[in-house]
Queue: 2 jobs
Job 1
Amino acid sequence: MTDTEITLTPTTTPPATPAIVPAGALRIGTGRTRRFVGREHGAGISYFFVDNDPGEGPGLHWHPYAETWVVLEGTARIVVGESELTAREGDTATVPAGVWHRFTNAGDGPLRMLCIHASDTIIQIWADESTTS
């Protein structure tokens, strides 16, 4: 139970027609990773669905909001600030806003991970300015 007052009245009529976003529409380039920007779909969060081979992962970066990872398959080595974590299938980890972080696939097979951004848009600031999202 929460002490927060809920003032929203539920309805059976959504403000827009519900739709499925096909995986192919979210794919980044020719890779297997997908990017969902919530603002484009009326959602308050954004995410990456990561599908990386061993050794792959993004470079060091940070966001002005928290990010939460859910490992769906494989093993991720996650660096949060000066800490290093190993997350396996079913594990969840979170990095606070403004903290440098990165992850790599530390396993022998694919890493499939949901990277949830607590924002309706994705903002990434890279340590290496030549890196892009």
Job 2
Amino acid sequence: MSKINAIGITILTALITSIFSFTIDLETKSLLNDRITLKVPKEFDIMPEEMTKLKYPSERRPTLIYSDPSGGINVALNLTQSRANQQLIEPYKENLVQTFKKLYPSAEWKSNGITLVNGRKVGYMEIVTPAIDTEVYNLIFFTDVDGKLLLCTFNCTKKSISEWTPIAKEIMNSLTVK
């Protein structure tokens, strides 16, 4: 009987571990006409234009969006026309923090700062913002590419934060400007 109990406990432990383990495979993509590389979840595809227009109704939507099949978890990139260089990353961060605090006064701020990623200054903000029927976790990170400001955003619903936050940070820390 003790062998059966031991086998049962082993199977139960394996089952519980597999249920609660969350792994996402990332693949490195060369993006923006080979100007950067960034890791993106393998299961993500480029968001279809119809879904992009619904999710981002403003004409100032990101230029490239990778999404899970539901459209609920995204990695978006926008190479803006704003001039930028490494010296401007700190002022951009300060400006974006102030702008988001005004736009979303009820947002929950997790962190913001400047970090060094693959030899480049990258500004970032980590916030949870209100949405119509939920709250959305956003990791917004940015640097300069060819004299322009590159804005990248990872977002998911609040219920997915614990699983996706480490992955979002891995995505940010994979950014390489060529």
